């Protein structure tokens, strides 16, 4: 197991280029299955999760090759489908994103049910409901989804709740269906829009992505794509909060400031100086932070994926505030670890009441999930003394070389193997 050793109290200063988005790259890589040809994706982040889905695509016979850092070629010309095994799907739930493409291209798919994860049960009933509406026969056998359909047919599907990967999965499935599919109450996330743009570049006919109603007119076949993965708005937000919590001055480039607007507003309310240009955003702090209430919501609301990181910041605010998590039922596990660092947080169901303290104290803490880990790293950057963050494999799922990037910006942080 690996851990980070952090000595706090050093303001982060300088410039960082945003990486490619984890949550945009996963469906983009899965979409290669839909094409009887070669695709090229670039600005693909080098993460455990992207490597997991590349491994999964390899199981189906997709020939993947890293042509240069972040540039991946994916040859799906001669694949015949396959099984998405429990070990891979359990390691990375977003593997469920191969279900729609496999079904669309081959008329059958055998994909392990993802199971739950640390932050919640995370069912996929909406994915399966939509595929059934499109004519797929779905059976669950020994923890696997067995899906079959001679030819998917277009359907009008209304999601009972907005689901990001549900929207992506069904959008991909519908591209090769017979007729028109309409997805109502679709997710608005930028990653959905990026996927729709990519599918249209492959020859699909997707319209309305980024609005609650997405329409997909089925076509006979799709060609490979050549596309860049957009910037990771959650990594950008995490770095913005790192500047705020250390009283530093960071400028993050090659990003889309609009996509972190909800966070930028909250940081301004908290007294940070936020400025932005067409493709960069800058956050300056002076060490003092005002308390700000936050309620997570689907895009363009405050992202649930930045809630843990924002909580770390609020533990040092000059007063009390309330954070409400509306998306996942168990996304406050970082609170108990922050409390080991002298934070004062009271959890009441989906609401966290935070009373700011003057200082956090370095301690040994354990990461439980991806964004909780980021929260603990941020707290360690601001804490007095030394913090050890254990189980950093969670971090490596969603952040590319985080400790190296933070060190380049002035942090005293290094990775160690836990003996
Ligand atoms: C995506 O997860 C992201 N992951 C998550 O990021 C993100 O937190 C989430 O969207 C919300 O923005 C990827 O894109 C790979 P949902 P996803 O389906 O699609 C419930 C990170 O840290 N639901 O939008 O799985 C579900 O339980 C990760 O990068 C159903 O009930 O999330 C949740 O409560 C964490 N039935 C809510 O909807 C379904 O069929 C939103 O889930 C599907 C979802």
Describe the structure.
The protein is of the alpha/beta class and 419 residues long. It has 14 helices and 24 strands. It has a four-stranded mixed sheet with strand order 22-23-1-24, with helices on one face. α1 packs parallel to α2 (48-59), α6 packs parallel to α7 and α10 (307-314) packs parallel to α12. It binds ligand EPZ. Residues 22-23, 26, 94, 120, 122-127, 161, 163-166, 304-305, 327-328, 370-371, 398 line the site of ligand EPZ.
Task: Please outline what is shown here.
With 419 residues, the protein is an alpha/beta fold.
Give the arrangement of secondary structure elements.
Layout: E1 2-7, E2 13-17, H1 22-30, E3 38-42, H2 48-59, E4 63-68, E5 71-75, E6 83-84, H3 86-91, H4 99-106, E7 108-112, H5 125-133, E8 137-141, E9 144-148, E10 156-158, H6 164-174, E11 180-184, H7 190-201, E12 205-207, E13 213-217, E14 226-228, H8 233-245, E15 249-253, H9 261-269, E16 273-276, E17 280-284, E18 294-295, H10 307-314, E19 320-324, H11 333-339, E20 344-348, E21 351-355, E22 364-366, H12 370-382, E23 386-390, H13 393-398, H14 402-408, E24 412-417
Parallel strand pairs: 2-15, 3-14, 6-7, 10-11, 18-19, 22-23
Antiparallel strand pairs: 1-23, 1-24, 3-5, 4-5, 7-9, 8-9, 11-13, 12-13, 15-17, 16-17, 19-21, 20-21
Helix pairs in contact: 1-2, 1-7, 4-6, 5-6, 6-7, 8-10, 8-12, 10-12, 11-12
């Amino acid at each position: 197991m690996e851990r980070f050793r952090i000595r706090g109290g050093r303001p982060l200063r300088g410039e960082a280029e945003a990486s490619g988005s984890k949550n945009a790259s996963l469906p983009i890589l899965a979409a290669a299955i839909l094409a009887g040809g070669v695709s090229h994706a670039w600005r693909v982040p080098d993460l455990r999760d992207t490597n997991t889905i590349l491994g999964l695509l390899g199981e189906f016979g997709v020939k993947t090759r890293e042509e240069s850092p972040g540039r991946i070629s994916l040859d799906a010309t001669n694949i015949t489908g396959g099984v998405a095994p429990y070990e891979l799907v359990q390691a990375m739930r977003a593997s469920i994103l191969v279900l729609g493409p496999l079904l669309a291209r081959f008329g059958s798919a055998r994909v392990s049910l993802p199971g739950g994860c640390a932050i919640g049960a995370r069912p996929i009933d909406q994915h399966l409901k939509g595929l059934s509406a499109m004519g797929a026969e779905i059976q669950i056998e020994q923890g696997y989804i067995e899906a079959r359909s001679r030819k998917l047919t277009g359907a009008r599907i209304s999601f009972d709740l907005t689901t990001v990967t549900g929207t992506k999965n069904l959008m991909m499935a519908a591209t090769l269906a017979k007729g028109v599919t309409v997805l109502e109450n679709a997710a608005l996330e930028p990653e959905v829009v990026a996927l729709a743009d990519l599918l249209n570049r492959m020859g699909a006919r997707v319209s309305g992505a980024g609005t609650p109603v997405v329409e997909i007119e089925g076509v006979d076949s799709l060609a490979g794509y050549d596309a860049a993965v957009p910037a990771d708005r959650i990594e950008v937000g995490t770095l913005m909060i790192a500047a705020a919590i250390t009283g530093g001055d960071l400028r993050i480039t090659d990003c889309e400031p609009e996509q972190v607007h909800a966070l930028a507003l909250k940081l301004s309310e908290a007294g940070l100086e936020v400025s932005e240009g067409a493709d960069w955003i800058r956050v300056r702090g002076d060490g003092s932070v005002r308390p700000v209430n936050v309620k997570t919501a689907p895009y363009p609301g405050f992202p649930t994926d930045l809630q843990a990181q924002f909580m770390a910041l609020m533990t040092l605010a000059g007063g009390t505030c309330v954070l409400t998590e509306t998306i996942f039922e168990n996304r406050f596990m970082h609170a108990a670890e922050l409390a080991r660092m002298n934070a004062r947080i009271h959890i009441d169901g989906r609401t966290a009441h935070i009373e700011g303290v003057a200082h956090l104290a370095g301690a040994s803490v354990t990461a439980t999930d991806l964004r909780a880990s980021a929260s603990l790293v941020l707290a360690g950057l601001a804490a007095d003394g030394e913090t050890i963050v254990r189980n950093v494999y969670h971090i490596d799922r969603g952040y590319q070389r985080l400790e190296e990037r933070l060190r380049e910006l002035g942090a005293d942080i290094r990775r160690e193997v836990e003996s």
